[in-house]
Amino acid sequence: MFKTTVTDLLESALKERPDLFLIDFSIGSENQIKIVIDGDNGVLVEDCMYISRAIEHNMDREEHEFSLEVFSAGATSPLVHVRQYKKNIGRTLAVKTASGTTEGVVTDATETTVSLEWKVREPKPVGKGKITVTKQENIAYSDILEAKVVIKF
Q: Are residues 88 and 139 in the same domain?
């Protein structure tokens, strides 16, 4: 009953804010509610407060004892949702698959794959020296073990 009520309130709040989406949601022992959200345009403290209030203000503390934490997916958190790949077009990702890790700039993100592009120095086909070559790879989300945004300073 408690989990159903919280789930319904969370879904309702996210319907009101289509720019926000759920990354993780759990209810632990002693009714500890943890919600992780992300947004197409990032997440502000106000967005976390909005979700928190949508749940907290509609729950009866006399009836249920609970704690509630709402936070955004951190910059170094692995990507888990297709919308996170789409919002990171133009940024560099490190994508780990069974065959290794590829680091490149996200050029496209469909419903099933992410496209990465990067430059490498290779020997010239003829003669001495090296040339810079642009490589591209489409990686299916189902093949990704972990993907993280590469933070560069």
A: yes
